Amino acid sequence: MELDRTVQRCTVDHMTTTPMTERGIATRGRIVSTAADLILERGARGTSLDDIRAATKTSKSQLFHYFPGGKSDLVDAVATLQAERVLEAQRPFLDHLDTWESWLGWRDALLAYYETQPLGCPIGALSAELARTDPDHAATVIAHMERWRSYLEAGLARMVDTDLLQPSIDPRFLSMKIFSALHGGLALMTMFESVEPLRAGLDAGLAALREAA
C-alpha cells in the first residue's frame, strides 16, 4: 500500500540520522501511521506497544529496531506525523497569513479538514493528554503546538509591518487569542460531535483580527 506522503516525509527525516532501506522506510511509516490512529482513538496511555505490534503484525525486536526508546520514541514520531498532517491541511494559507484573503482561506481549510476528523484535533489531544500524564515528555509534543501558533504570529507581524493592523498590536498576544478560539472550538466540536463550535471559534478569532485593523 502506498505510504501517506506525510508519513513518508517524516520517515525520510528520520533517515538523516538512521539510514534505512526502502523497505525499512515503508515498515517504519506503517507502524507510525497505525500507532497514530490507535493513539487518536484510545489515547497514548490507552495504547500499549503490544496493541501496536498486534495491529501492525510486527515483532518486539522489529519495533525496538525502529524505535530504540520504545513507546516514548514512538509517541514522538506520532506527534511529528500528526503535526505535519495538521499543518499540511492548512497550506498554502498557513504560510501566507498576511492578507485578509489568506485568513479566510485558512479558516475554510481548517473547517474542511476537521470535518473529516470526527475524533477532534490529533496533535491537540495528544498534547493535552501528555501535559496531564507525562509532563517531562509533554514538552517535546507541545512544541508542535507552539510551532503551529508561531505561523499565526508571523503573519500578524507582517500585517503590522504593512499597516493592515494597528502598530500598537502585539502579534504574539493576538495570535494566542486566535489560537485559543480555534482550540476552544475544537474541544467543543468533539463534545458536541459537530463542526459548528469550531466554525464559531474561528469566526470569533477572525473578529478579533478585524478589530485590530
TrEMBL record:
Pfam families: TetR_C_13 (PF16925), TetR_N (PF00440). Residues 109-200 form the Tetracyclin repressor-like C-terminal domain. The lineage of its organism: Bacteria, Bacillati, Actinomycetota, Actinomycetes, Pseudonocardiales. The keyword Methyltransferase does not apply. InterPro entries: Homeodomain-like_sf, HTH_TetR, Tet_transcr_reg_TetR-rel_C_sf, TetR_C. One of its GO terms (molecular function) is DNA binding. Residues 31-78 form the HTH tetR-type domain. This is Transcriptional regulator, TetR family. It comes from Kibdelosporangium aridum. SUPFAM superfamilies: Homeodomain-like, Tetracyclin repressor-like, C-terminal domain. Keywords: DNA-binding, Transcription, Transcription regulation.
